[in-house]
Structures are given as structure tokens and as C-alpha cells.
Design brief:
Layout: H1 18-27, E1 34-38, E2 44-45, E3 51-57, E4 68-75, E5 82-87, E6 92-97, E7 103-113, E8 116-126, H2 141-153, E9 159-164, E10 171-178, E11 185-192, E12 200-206, H3 216-224, E13 228-232, H4 243-250, H5 270-286, E14 290-300, H6 302-313, E15 319-323, H7 354-360, H8 365-371, E16 376-381, H9 389-398, E17 403-408, H10 417-433
Parallel strand pairs: 2-8, 12-13, 12-14, 14-15, 15-16, 16-17
Antiparallel strand pairs: 1-3, 3-6, 4-5, 4-7, 7-8, 9-10, 10-11, 11-13
Helix pairs in contact: 5-6, 6-8, 8-9
């Protein structure tokens, strides 16, 4: 196993690099007095190359910067390998380090302002295209999912469409329920009025973690762009209920859904969620207006994992978009790396239950990515602590088709406006290319 080598140099004055200027612009929006970011534009380094992180005072801060700051360098959020204290000179200091394996390095600074403790985080990639999955797929991965799809196919596709107001001219909308294995597909379906047979692309949009209704506006928005659009909630729940309905479920029976049933591949909660993806695609593929070739699945976080899973499970998918995807590289600990959300195996657990380790590999986005033949777009946040960038890259690198990845160097677990625009543009390009 390769070693992580991290070290620090003393404080020094630094000339402004393009990335430092961009970080300063982003930090000026926040009141915190300090920010930290990789010095290099793009924040991508090679193995063994010296990384430099810039700690700097934000001129737009409402409180003055402290004279000293504590720092910690980590391998993508794993416990610090090296810590120290830097003294700012003329509002700047630097910390340097190296990583002799592919991965991500993060620099976290902590400091006090009065009685308040603040922190900031910066990230850098190290040979990210060389990050490999921590484990291969189980030998019977395909056989397991083929058996699950056979179970689903035995249930007839029975859509129930209830008209709802779309709020947009020339767009029809419906509350949709479709039978499946367990909970039904539940979402909002929208289509352009009066479309010709076999004339339209289709898009399925899926949700991040949490408990909520499907989004009518999402489906209507894509239908307004000329697509058959279906937005489904993650749990097969009724749509359009009062907030208290979803809050009660989130605090009750669905409170810990993310880890439910993880002891067996047959009981992992996400089994039903992933089968609903296929059933949603069954519905879209039955629509007479569908062009028969263009079907996109798009989502972020848990939705990003669903998008990858759909592409890996269903050949009818022609393109997918996975923003800051969750559920990547569940067994990262075996490669001395961090794992993705929902962290079925807790970070630092030296003796995880063997049955859990075995079961969750059937739900790893890495393995679905390796199976798909569809092109796709990923986004990744360099300081994402929920879906760490090394896990995202493990899945991205497993994808052997045409692919793109959007780097959000200063972003945590979010899609910035730039990432959101890139995701939307990718879908539109695919629609245009498939005409």
C-alpha cells in the first residue's frame, strides 16, 4: 500500500495566482475572515508533486483575520496525517504537502474569532484519472440484478394518470403511479400537448436523499423544452401532500432508510428504489410520443447514484447525468480510502461486519458505471465531505464510454450554478445529437 507523505513549510508571502483570485472572489461573499484554496489554477497535481494551499485573509470580511491559524492535511477527509500552525504575514500563509498515490488532499484550517470557532476547507486532486475502484464487482453481480429485473417484469405495467394543472401553456401534466415490486413508482409526468407519435425524447429526473414529493415544476420545465418528462420521488410516496406528511415519515419509518437492510443484498433499502427506476423507464418507453432512442436519467447526490444505476441496469437509457453522486466505492476502506454516502461502513471501522461488506457491493455506483455503455456527465466537488471526490472519481474512472466530468474546485456537496448549467447543457446537447 502506498504511503501518504504530507509536510508543511513556514508562512510566506505569495503572489496571486488565478485560482487564488477566484477563491478570493468566492470567499468575499461570506463573512468569514479566512479562506484556503489550492494555489494552482484547476487544483490538479501529479503523484509526488508538491501541492501548495494558500491561506489568505478575505478583504470583504466583517472581522479581522487572526494572526495564526491551525491547519490539517488529510487524504480526502480521513483523519489528519499532518497538522500544524501557520502564522499569517500580510494576510497570507502557505501549507504544502505531497501525495504519492492517486487521490485528493484537503487542507482544513481552524481558528477562533472571539468565542467563535471557524473553519474553512480547500481541496486538490492528485492524478485523479488513476483512482481505481477499491474492489471489483461481485462475480454474480449481473446475475443478481438480472434476477431482480425478472421479478419486476412479472408485475404488469399499470400506470394510473391523474391530470393536474401544469401552469404552463401547451404542457399537460399528471400525477403518476405505476405498480412495481413493493412501493409503486410515484411522480409527476408532463408532456407537450399534441405531440406526434415517436417525435420526442424522454427524461427521468430523480431525487437526492430525503423524503419529499416529486417535483411538478421539474417535469413541466422539461416538457416545456420539448421532452416527455417524469420526476419521481425516491420512496414511492404519494405526491403533493402537506410538508407535515413527509416530515412525519422522515422522522419515523424512513428516518434511517439509508442503512436499512444492509446486512443482506436482498434487503438493502435501495433495492426497491433502483427497481423503481426500471419501472419508470418502462412507463416512458410505452408512451407513443417517445422517439424510441433518446432517454436521459438525471439526478444529483442520491439522485446521481440512481442515474448511474439506471444506466447500468437498463439499456434503454441513452445518456445520464450524475451530479456529485452518492453511493460510490462503499468499500473504500479496503484501499485505505474514504467511502461515499451513505457510508454503509463507518469511516475508521477496522472490523466491519462481513455480511455488510458483501451486501453493499451490489449497490455500488462503481459497479453500475462499469456495466453501462451509455455516455454520461459527472460533477464533483473538491471539498465535498458527503460524497467525497475520490469516491466520485472511482465511479467515473470505471465508466468506459464517452464521458465528461465538471470540476467544482471550491464546492462542497452542492451543484454550483456553473455545474447546474453544465448538466442542463449536456442534456440539451444529447437531445440535439439524437435527432
Amino acid at each position: 500500500m502506498k504511503r501518504l507523505l504530507l509536510f508543511a513549510l513556514g508562512a510566506a508571502l505569495l503572489s496571486a495566482s488565478p485560482l487564488a483570485l477566484a477563491a478570493e472572489k468566492a470567499a468575499a461573499k461570506a463573512p468569514d475572515p479566512l479562506s484556503v484554496a489550492a494555489e494552482r489554477a484547476g487544483a490538479v497535481y501529479r503523484k509526488g508533486e508538491t501541492l501548495t494551499f494558500v491561506i489568505k485573509a478575505n478583504p470583504g470580511a466583517t472581522t479581522p483575520a487572526p494572526a495564526e491559524v491551525d491547519w490539517a492535511l488529510t487524504k480526502d477527509g480521513l483523519p489528519p496525517f499532518r497538522t500544524g500552525r501557520a502564522r499569517l504575514e500580510q494576510g497570507r500563509a502557505l501549507v504544502t504537502g505531497t501525495l504519492d498515490e492517486p487521490g485528493f488532499v484537503q487542507c482544513r484550517i481552524t481558528y477562533a474569532v472571539g468565542d467563535k470557532k471557524l473553519n474553512a476547507l480547500g481541496g486538490a486532486a492528485v492524478s485523479p484519472r488513476e483512482i481505481e475502484p477499491s474492489q471489483p464487482a461481485p462475480a454474480d453481480f449481473a446475475a443478481f440484478w438480472d434476477a431482480q429485473k425478472k421479478r419486476l417484469a412479472a408485475v404488469p405495467v399499470r400506470p394510473r394518470l391523474t391530470p393536474v394543472k401544469s401552469g404552463r401553456d401547451r404542457v399537460e401534466a399528471f400525477d403518476l403511479q405505476v405498480d412495481g415490486v413493493g412501493s409503486p413508482v410515484s411522480g409527476y409526468y408532463a408532456r407537450p400537448s399534441g405531440a406526434k407519435v415517436k417525435s420526442l425524447p424522454a427524461i427521468l429526473t430523480v431525487h437526492g436523499a430525503g423524503v419529499r414529493s416529486a417535483g411538478l415544476s421539474t417535469a413541466v420545465g422539461w416538457a416545456g423544452e420539448g421532452a416527455l418528462a417524469l420526476d419521481i420521488n425516491a420512496h414511492g410516496l404519494p405526491n403533493g401532500q402537506p410538508a407535515s406528511f413527509y416530515e412525519a415519515l422522515a422522522n419515523g419509518e424512513l428516518k434511517n432508510y439509508r442503512s436499512a437492510g444492509k446486512e443482506s443484498r436482498d434487503t438493502v433499502y435501495f433495492l426497491g428504489m433502483f427497481l423503481r427506476l426500471i419501472r419508470a423507464i418502462d412507463f416512458l418507453a410505452q408512451q407513443p410520443e417517445w422517439d424510441g432512442r433518446t432517454l436521459v436519467v438525471s439526478g444529483s447526490s442520491q439522485g446521481g447514484a440512481q442515474a448511474i444505476a439506471a444506466a447500468g441496469l437498463d439499456a434503454r437509457v441513452s445518456f445520464f447525468v450524475a451530479g456529485v453522486p452518492a453511493m460510490c466505492d462503499h468499500t473504500g476502506f479496503l484501499a485505505r480510502r474514504i467511502s461515499g454516502w451513505p457510508k454503509f461502513i463507518a469511516t475508521g471501522d477496522a472490523n466491519p461486519a462481513p455480511e455488510v461488506v458483501a451486501a453493499v457491493r451490489y449497490y455500488d455506483a462503481v459497479n453500475f458505471a462499469a456495466r453501462t455503455k451509455d455516455p454520461g456527465l459527472f460533477t464533483v466537488g473538491f471539498i465535498d465531505t458527503n460524497c467525497p471526490p475520490s469516491t466520485v472519481y472511482a465511479a467515473y474512472n470505471a465508466l468506459k464510454t464517452r464521458k465528461e466530468i465538471h470540476h467544482d474546485v471550491f464546492a462542497g456537496h452542492t451543484n454550483t450554478p456553473e455545474a447546474t448549467a453544465a448538466m442542463r447543457a449536456a442534456v440539451k446537447r444529447h437531445f440535439a445529437a439524437m435527432k
